[in-house]
Design a protein that fits this description.
The chain is of the alpha/beta class. It has one domain (37-178, 187-201): Rossmann fold. 31% of the residues lie in helices and 24% in strands. It is built from 7 helices and 12 strands. It has helices at residues 4-13, 18-21, 38-48, 59-72, 83-91, 125-128, 152-162, and strands at 52-56, 77-80, 95-97, 106-109, 113-115, 120-124, 138-144, 148-149, 170-173, 178-179, 187-188, 195-201. The strands form 3 sheets. A 6-stranded parallel sheet has the order 1-12-7-4-2-3, with helices on both faces. A 4-stranded mixed sheet has the order 8-5-6-9. Strands 10-11 form a two-stranded antiparallel ribbon. The N and C termini lie far apart (68 Å).
Length: 203
């Protein structure tokens, strides 16, 4: 006597699309083709989710752009692990620390990779620790054009090759924190930064 499961499987087997089940999934490209340069695609995708990407032609332009952003947005308390920025902003009279407290206005971090297809920033505990990219109201990410990959799959492959032992935490940040759990109303900054800005050195 046939069970319901047997009947369903027999019906699936007899359908024209059944041969697709046997296809080698590694040979099937499930993504649409990326059109344009990776840096332009990343910028477009991150802006689509309320993030921001600022493309700078060299390191000096990048540093100047970050300083202007901090000044224009009146950000006073800076949280970063990056030695150059710790000293730079201390010399300019800002309160700068690599010890987190609840008065932090902005965090400045590096990243591992940027996923162009999804506008995602890939970070790890090796680069940012666990708190720096979560608790500051504004998160500034510094990256180079060479860190942009096609998609998250490629980013994970590169991470696997980069580290003998993977970092204890790998995070994927796609735009500012958000939720629509409360009465289906979109809230920006619900569980993390309200602003995400990626400064990219177009080296």
């Amino acid at each position: 006597m046939d069970t319901s499961r047997t009947k369903i499987l027999r019906n699936v087997k007899d359908r024209p699309f059944a041969k697709l089940v046997k296809a080698d999934i590694d040979k099937v490209d499930v993504y649409k083709t990326i059109e344009g340069s990776l840096i332009d695609v990343f910028k477009s995708e991150i802006e689509a989710v309320d993030g921001q990407a600022i493309i700078c032609k060299n390191k000096k332009d990048l540093d100047d752009a970050i300083q202007n952003f901090i000044k224009e947005n009146k950000l006073k308390n800076i949280y970063t692990f990056i030695p150059d920025y710790l000293q730079l902003y201390k010399d300019k009279g800002y309160k700068v620390s690599k010890v987190f407290d609840d008065k932090i206005d902005v965090s400045i971090t590096h990243c591992e990779y940027l996923s162009a297809r999804t506008g995602t920033v890939i970070v790890s505990s090796k680069v940012t620790g666990r708190r720096i990219n979560i608790f500051a109201p504004t998160h500034i990410v510094i990256a180079k054009k060479s860190q942009i990959v096609k998609d998250i799959d490629e980013g994970l492959d590169k991470l696997t090759n980069k580290y003998k032992n993977l970092p204890s935490a790998i995070s994927f940040i796609t735009g500012p924190s958000r939720t629509a759990d409360i009465e289906k109303t979109l809230i920006i900054g619900a569980h993390g930064p309200k602003k995400l800005i990626v400064f990219i050195e177009n080296n």
